[in-house]
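Quick one: structure tokens for this chain, please?
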Amino acid sequence: MSQSANEPMSQMTNIFRLSSFVLRPAGLVGALVLLVACAVATPTPTPTPTPTPTPRIEFDAERAREHVRILAETIGARVAGTDNAARASEYIAQEFARYGYTLQNQAFTFESWEDRGTRVQMVVPEARALEAYALQYSPAGNVEAELVAVSGVGAENDFARVNVRGKIALVQRGTLPFSDKARNAERAGALATIVYNNAPEIFSGTLRERTTRPVLAISGRDGQALLDALARGTVKIKIESDTAIENKSARNVIATKRGTSDEVIVIGAHYDSVSAGAGANDNGSGVAVLLEAARVLAHKSLKHTLIFVAFDAEEIGLVGSRQYVTSLADDARGHIVAMINFDMLGGGSGPLLLDGEGRIGKLALEAAQELGIAARSFKLGQGYGSDHQSFRSVGIDAVFFMREYTLLHTPHDTLEQIRAEWLGEAGRVAVRVVEKIGD
């Protein structure tokens, strides 16, 4: 205690001298009260601290769009096996690490196809160059022959109605995989196959099976121009295509957050793109939703273990996701209760599309309804693929998130196509699905 120099405890001394006085009863009571008051100090209540609420982390659509900008513009086209793909994988790994996930890089090799130069010209009825891409895994070849239009989508019975032997087949994109169209053309005797887009722009794609004769892609505009020329008479085409195959390296980026159980939810999106454009929507948008969902879910206490996978080499035949699935031990594969796949979510038109006929697909539709987000069930058509299919092939329940989009694999797949609010819708539904799986 502190003391004053001018008052040497005189008041305190007087209090203690009370015991030597002879007092009247009333005075005695008063003295006793005074002594008790001095001897028993009244405790000062300690205020109960108000707990600081944990801030609720919400999906940030603008943050997601910034991921798209970095992938599509700062890095650019991310063809598997290239330096840009490696830069993208490093960026994705860095973001997962920031959110506190345990990281793993799954490296693998694949056969890399390269177009060293492809030229297509109409030589009859006039000399005219056509913009064309050789489809991935199309072999090298030089052909000059008459062009024949094949009605339909290039099915086997479509070729039965025309004579393409020793000629070049012209077929429309859609419904059938490119490899099926090319195989049907080869069986009918065609020297090469030209696939024209079912939209005005040019596109690029991949063959799931090797062919022995060139298979090329042109725009819907050029396809219609060739059909118009055929309606007037004979059309001859010259093809010069130099392609080659070599082994290259790729990697899946895997981020894990352990739950309280061994049951696993895998959430994925591919980060590679085709060479035709920046790959903003296909699939910078899917990776953006993946990363932002990972940030949000990092702050949630969940029963399930979460594994986020950014897949490489999807565009050349789902190579990365197949590598991931086939590398799993049987017991690890058995622990996966759901797979959620993101592809093409920020551009295009229409509602959010959800491909999933099992429990997870139903939960996704319920989640969208709860959040007031327009969504509908759909089935991905033949000729198109994404990484959820690798999981379904081994019996894992999966749901695929996408929107209708016609600019995939074109130079027009740029950041300008991306709407932040659509990224936000997909991300909020996905986070809610993960929560509902654990309910």
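The chain has two domains: 61-112+246-438, 126-234.
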